[in-house]
Each structure stands twice: as C-alpha cells, then as structure tokens.
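Late entry, evening session. Most of the bench is empty. Finally got around to the prediction I had been postponing all week. Sequence below, unchanged from the version circulated by S.P.
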Amino acid sequence: MKLLFKSVPNLKSLIKISDNRNINFNEVFIQTPLLSKNPQLIGHAYDYFLQLLCERLNRCNSNISSNMILYNELPESFQYDSEKNIEIYTSGLKEWNYDMTKQSIIYGKLDQYYRSGVPPVDIMNVEDEDIKDLHSLITSTMKSEHIFKAKYRFISNPHFGSSISMLMGGADADLIIDDSLIDIKVRSKLRFESYPWHQLIGYYVLGLLTPNINYKIKRISIWNPRYEILMYINIDDLFNIFDFKKFVVNFIETAIVIYRKKDSSPTYLDYIKDVRLAWEINSKNLG
C-alpha cells in the first residue's frame, strides 16, 4: 500500500486555509506551545474533548463513556462524575472546566492503552503540566468552535463498509462535518508532510468503497489546534492532478493482495464482490 501512495503527486500546492488561500507554512505561527512531556497523551485527550465539543455544538447524544475500555476499573465516584459532566456539558447546561480537562487526560490514557496494548500506570494521577497544556488547547479551540458546528451533517468517528474494513483491518476517521472529512493532528511543528494527507485520501477511498453511502465528501481537512488552523484540499483538485479512478482500482487490488496473504478462506471472495460493487455504484458520482 505504501508503494501505491508513492504514485500520488506532491500535494503541497493544493493545500488551502480557511480564507481559500494557498498555505505558506513560513507565515503560520504556533499559538499554543507544547508544555507537556507526553504529547501523544495530549493528542488522545484532545480528541476526547473535541468529540464532546462537537456533540455539544451539534446537539448529539454522547456515547463516549460506553466506548471506553477499562471503564469498570476506574473508581466508581469518577465514573459517576464523568458521566454527569458529559451529560450536562453536551446538553449545554455547563461550561468546560479544569475537572473535565483532567477527565479528558484520564480517558486519553485509556485510549493510549487501546492503541498500544500497554496498560496505563497509576491512571488517576495527572501531571499539572498535562492539565495546563490541554486546557490551553481547549481554550484556544473555543475561539474557533464555528468550524465544528455543522450546517446539515455531522458524523463523529465515521466507520466504513464491513467488507472493505475486513480487507483493510478496520479504520475510522475523526469527523465528517457537512462535506468535509476532517482529521485532528495536535502537532507542535507545522510543515508539509505527505503522510497525513495520504491517510485522509485513504479514508476518502474507504468511503467510496462503502455501499449505500448517503453523503459526498468535497474536502479533506486537517485541524491543528496548536496553530488554530484548518488546512484542506478540495477533492476536485485531486482529480485534476492524477487519475483518481485508476488509483482507486489499484487500491482495491492492493487491499485484496494484502488480505489474501493473511486469509485466503472463501469468505474473502464475498468481501471482494461487495467492495467492487460499491465502487461500481459510487464511482458514477465522481467528477
């Protein structure tokens, strides 16, 4: 798959920012410098916060706590308080505070465990620097909350079709807001990197290989809260620089080859059939 993405042309010239200008990375400056010694944890904790903010702005019911692993191993009092905080905050009846920032870091530790398989040590102990760092990011994000308020469509952690997910080993993006697919990157250095954009293109392709999809993505976007900046690439601009339909066909064939090496049982033939059918239908709606 890495070899396939090497065929994607350099995307730097396509990246725009909120006023529809092409980005000049030399003219963008950090607004919230890193304070924590564990930036990866802050990234996970920020994702937790942003999901709650989006649910508040878009009036969605939260199921975030039910998705958290090790939930029963947390103190009962903390479980009760966090559930209460989630309900009251997302309903708009209270503002964000330091207790919820601490709560976010604790759940960020759980998310780290889910991804790494390494159990958290002293999960309830939260460093002051972590709280200050995350709270500063949260405060700065509040100034840009209009970015996360949907006009007609909001999807948190969008999933993709079961067949392509089986072939690819599962994947989910961060947000869909209206016609934008948004990924969150809490990075202290802002420079052009191919990988985050390739990841978003991959998510976009997974959407095209999902049956009965009821939305159309027109932008892939990256939000970096340390710089308070939303960067995006228009899908039509991608179509103009390389043969995107050919890329998707090659993506499907590459996924099949990778999966076949792991599991060549007859079931995978059904996955292939479903994915190819979804692409046949959804490709007709591309520009």
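Two things to note before I forget:
The beta strands are 16-17, 154-156, 175-177, 180-184, 219-224, 229-234.
The longest helix spans residues 39-57.
Will write this up properly tomorrow.
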